[in-house]
Amino acid sequence: MGILEGKKGIIFGALDENSIAWKVAEKAKSEGAEFILSNAPVALRMGKIQELGEKCNSKVIPADATSLEDLNALIGEAKETYGGIDFVLHSIGMSPNVRKSKPYTDLNYDFFLKTLDISALSFHKVMQVAYNMNAINDWGSVLALSYIAAQRSFPGYDDMAEAKSVLESIARSFGFRYGKKANVRVNTVSQSPTMTTAGSGIAGFDSFYHYADKMSPLGNATSDSCAAFCVAMFSDYTRMVTMQNLYHDGGFSSVGVSKEIMELVKQD
Ligand SMILES: NC(=O)c1ccc[n+]([C@@H]2O[C@H](COP(=O)([O-])OP(=O)(O)OC[C@H]3O[C@@H](n4cnc5c(N)ncnc54)[C@H](O)[C@@H]3O)[C@@H](O)[C@H]2O)c1
């Protein structure tokens, strides 16, 4: 359909073909967008992002999303290449506490600060750098990926829950200011559990993947459908949507309990 024809962007967070950002890049390309791909330097060494870069005819520029220096260089280069950008995808998350299986009641606070910096503050940093450089064009669209653990408690998600709450709050606070400045809209997409490197790092992920699938009337949203939704959010068809946390979860967030789950826990 070419709904992103002429649009330029930056996509953060494609590690391998399972990454949500990878699917967004493929979909954005097929809809006519041009974009720069970015990820942490270590992900460039370990992951397959160069392969995606070749496929999408995109520059791959390393940036640690917690480093203002890296972000200034990256966003400066994007502005120089394109004149201005129309969309940004923040698809970044990592908790050292989750990675090292620290229980929520025994968190390492240095790790906790790292979780917040990588998974939430980096979203603010990306926008602050772009805002001060006037890098995003009028009616641009900025998205970050979130999860319903921002609102409800889930075992194993630990300090990532706090990070997602902060992330969603940043979308509202920055969304107001960027809207006033340049009609730039800022939203988060709260996605179903998805089989990716970050997803499967959560203890018991398989169980809550299947639980969510059985709770949701439409089943879990796949990463391909998430990509289609993100592309719609980057397009001109969603210009008046901002400061929202948008559930892309097959209905999960509105369900109390489903019959399938009741059958599973039935006791006679
Ligand atoms: N997989 C799920 O179940 C699920 C559900 C809802 C939301 N999300 C969110 O989607 C987003 C993408 O995750 P994914 O599931 O595609 O997994 P993924 O592991 O493919 O992506 C996470 C990305 O974050 C990048 N990253 C980590 N530290 C970074 C840093 N300092 N600077 C720059 N990049 C850094 C990683 O290199 C990786 O590319 C995350 O925000 C995640 O929390 C995932």
Short description:
This protein is of the alpha/beta class.
List the helices and strands and how they pair.
Elements: E1 8-12, H1 20-30, E2 34-39, H2 41-46, H3 49-56, E3 60-62, H4 68-82, E4 85-90, H5 96-99, H6 109-133, E5 136-146, H7 160-182, E6 185-191, H8 197-200, H9 205-215, H10 223-234, E7 245-248, H11 259-265
Parallel strand pairs: 1-2, 1-4, 2-3, 4-5, 5-6, 6-7
Bound molecules: nicotinamide-adenine-dinucleotide.
Residues 12-13, 15, 19-21, 39-40, 43, 64-66, 91-94, 118, 145-147, 191, 193-194, 196-199 line the site of nicotinamide-adenine-dinucleotide (NAD).
Structure commentary:
This protein is of the alpha/beta class. The chain has a single domain, classed as Rossmann fold. The protein is built from 11 helices and 7 strands. A 7-stranded parallel sheet has the order 3-2-1-4-5-6-7, sandwiched between helices. Helix 7 links the parallel strand 5 and strand 6. It is globular and about 65 Å long. The relative contact order is 0.14. The chain binds nicotinamide-adenine-dinucleotide. The site of nicotinamide-adenine-dinucleotide has 27 residues, from helix 1, strand 5 and helix 8.
